[in-house]
Design goal:
heterodimer, B: alpha+beta
């Protein structure tokens, strides 16, 4: 199956030649200014790239959580019809429940997921300050930050999650 | 000793493994009568058929043709099983009934779907795909403009990273192949190569990852290596010839052949080229799998070589001794299936199954194995190899590396991810099929 056959080199050259001839492509994509992508561009990277201005404290987050989150995630985030966001046991079995405290590797993921996906019925309705406050509240309730620590673009990426080094890249050659 | 052509034919028709497995060529090359003679027995001919008579549907004109045809009303029970039929605020799974269909292509209405916050009702004329980040020129594409690009078609399976999760149970869970393995399906996908679009935006050499995002309410996002995007990634617009089904990503999805289903982002609206992975919820939590030592695999990507028998399987009882075709599906995210072996005696002996052509890379391959069931207990297994030399691990090998649950999980649960070991079906003397570990 993998035996080289005469003619392969020729085919390759032809393919490269035709590729070059059409390198311009149909060019039907419309240019857009990065500023005009802003409403969709909610990507946050683990080093904090993309985090917006603003900030919030656990105390601010506690009030928002009670109002907009507790109906699903339970009082103080202990779990309800949706998963608990506070607490978590040891990773002592392959089916252990993964929680923010025992599993998540990066604090930025908490901000990112709340901002893009929550609350369930009205995603992307929270202000950035509200998202920071909720992130601060959840991290504080999990004892990952102090109860008066404010979360913002500077402080959030510096929060070290307990399971940061608990991961193995399965197929490094695929990256 | 030289084998004459005649002798070769005889060898080819023999029983190849224990408990009645016949050579895979037995019924491809010759009639059953010949095979029966050569093998030294004949299949018992059933009792005489009843006299034939006209049926009512033959004695008058038939029904109307519909603009979009529906299957026979007698087939209406062939459906997906739903994990969340009332749309409660959680993930909804719909599983493919592999034991009730055949071939290698999953009909669109039966393709598995998982939606994490319901299926969005997207107006295709208003949908946009933007490619931005570390590119030379950010670009926006509509469905109409994408439809004017050079297209490619390819067959590809899509499998949820959590397919077969009940197999992590320490005890075998009694369930159908649909419940155990229903989160994988295979289609012909048609669309535009992602590399074609990236040629137009240009790629900053610093870009190593592409964060793909959907237009669903979760804006579901996954990080994909640029390496995969430039290899065989596609913006898929058509599924088996028609536009994508809503649950499969209408009007467009990212198709990453052979990669974990969740990375094949549906309702695709944004691709951002970046230097580092986003560590999104689904990649750092849901689809990172815990190992017995407490560490977890991240960026698993590949759906590794796997096979399972669909016929017979639980719910498809055998009706008396005699001939049956054992058949199933095999696939690998690494490429083509190169070999499938089948056992009817729990792995003590194996015979090579016939692979139904065409055998395509990263797509379902149907395997078939003629079998004479003697009416006694049998233990059916299949084991697949791919062209990269990867082989499906035995259960003992798999459990030693990946572990199994401490308690028996619910059949709809996801105790872990990426199970690709063997599946074993026990046939008892009555022809009933049960799920067992062997």
């Amino acid at each position: 199956m993998f035996t080289p056959k005469p003619g392969h080199a020729f085919v390759l050259l032809v393919a490269l030649g035709s590729g070059a001839a059409f390198a311009e492509g149909p060019n039907l994509g419309r240019p857009i200014d990065p500023a005009d992508i802003a409403a969709w561009d909610i990507s946050i990277l683990p080093d904090g790239t993309g985090l917006p201005p603003g900030g919030g404290t656990p105390a601010q987050g506690e009030r928002i959580f009670a109002q907009k989150c507790a109906m699903c995630h339970g009082e103080r985030g202990k779990g309800g019809v949706a998963a608990a966001v506070v607490g978590g046991g040891p990773i002592d079995r392959i089916e252990a429940t993964k929680t923010i405290a025992n599993f998540w590797g990066y604090s930025t993921t908490v901000f990112d997921f709340i901002r893009r996906a929550m609350p369930w019925q009205q995603p992307r309705s929270l202000t950035d300050n509200e998202v920071y406050a909720l992130t601060a509240y959840i991290l504080a309730e999990n004892k990952l930050i102090g109860e008066n620590d404010s979360m913002n673009a500077e402080t959030l990426p510096k929060v070290r999650m307990p399971n940061r080094d608990g991961f193995i890249i399965r197929f490094p050659d695929k990256i | 000793m030289a084998i004459t052509p005649d002798r070769q034919d005889l060898v080819g028709l023999e029983v190849v493994a224990g408990n009645g497995l016949l050579d895979r060529r037995a019924f491809l090359r010759s009639g059953a009568a010949v095979a029966g003679t050569v093998m030294g027995y004949t299949f018992v001919r059933p009792a005489a058929a009843a006299p034939l008579a006209e049926d009512p549907w033959s004695l008058g004109p038939g029904g109307l043709s519909r603009p979009y045809q529906q299957r026979s009303r007698f087939e209406e029970k062939i459906v997906r099983t739903l994990s969340n039929p009332n749309g409660e605020p959680r993930t909804s799974h719909a599983r493919t009934p592999h034991h009730l269909i055949n071939g290698t292509i999953t009909p669109n209405g039966l393709h598995f779907t998982i939606v994490h916050s319901g299926t969005p009702d997207i107006d295709p004329d208003k949908h946009r795909l933007v490619i931005h980040g570390l590119v030379k020129q950010p670009l926006v594409f509509t469905l109409d403009t994408l439809a004017r690009y050079p297209m490619v078609s390819r067959f590809s399976f899509v499998e949820c990273g959590g397919n077969s999760a009940p197999m992590f149970s320490k005890e075998p869970i009694q369930a159908s192949v649909q419940a155990l393995h229903g989160l994988v399906s295979c289609s012909e996908w048609t669309g535009v190569r992602l590399s074609t679009l990236l040629d137009e935006t240009g790629i900053d050499p610093k870009a190593k990852w592409i964060v793909a995002e959907g237009a669903d309410s979760l804006a579901l996002s996954r990080s994909v290596p640029v390496k995969k995007a430039l290899d065989d990634a596609m913006i898929a617009l058509y599924q088996n010839g028609e536009r994508l089904m809503p649950g499969n990503g209408y009007p467009m999805r990212l198709l990453l052949p052979g990669y974990e289903g969740n990375m094949n982002v549906k309702f695709l609206r944004r691709l951002k080229l970046v230097e580092q992975p986003a560590m999104s919820y689904y990649e750092t939590r849901t689809y990172s799998q815990i190992l017995p030592n407490g560490k977890a695999f991240r960026f698993y990507f590949l759906q590794e070589v796997k096979s399972f028998i669909t016929h017979p399987s639980p719910g498809l009882a055998l009706r008396g001794p005699g001939f049956y075709e054992i058949s199933g599906i095999a696939y690998s995210g690494n490429g083509r299936i190169s070999k499938v072996m089948v056992s009817a005696d729990g792995g003590r002996s194996w015979g090579e199954a016939a692979l139904q052509a065409p055998v395509l890379s990263k797509a379902f391959t149907r395997f078939r194995m003629p079998w004479r069931w003697d009416g006694g207990p049998a233990l059916l297994q299949s084991r697949a190899w791919d062209e990269g030399g990867n082989v499906q691990p035995t259960r003992a090998q798999f459990v030693a590396e990946r572990g199994e649950t401490r308690n028996i999980p619910p059949v709809l649960g996801f105790p872990n991810q990426h199970y690709n070991s063997l599946t074993s079906w026990a046939v008892d003397g009555k022809g009933e099929v049960k799920h067992v570990y062997a």
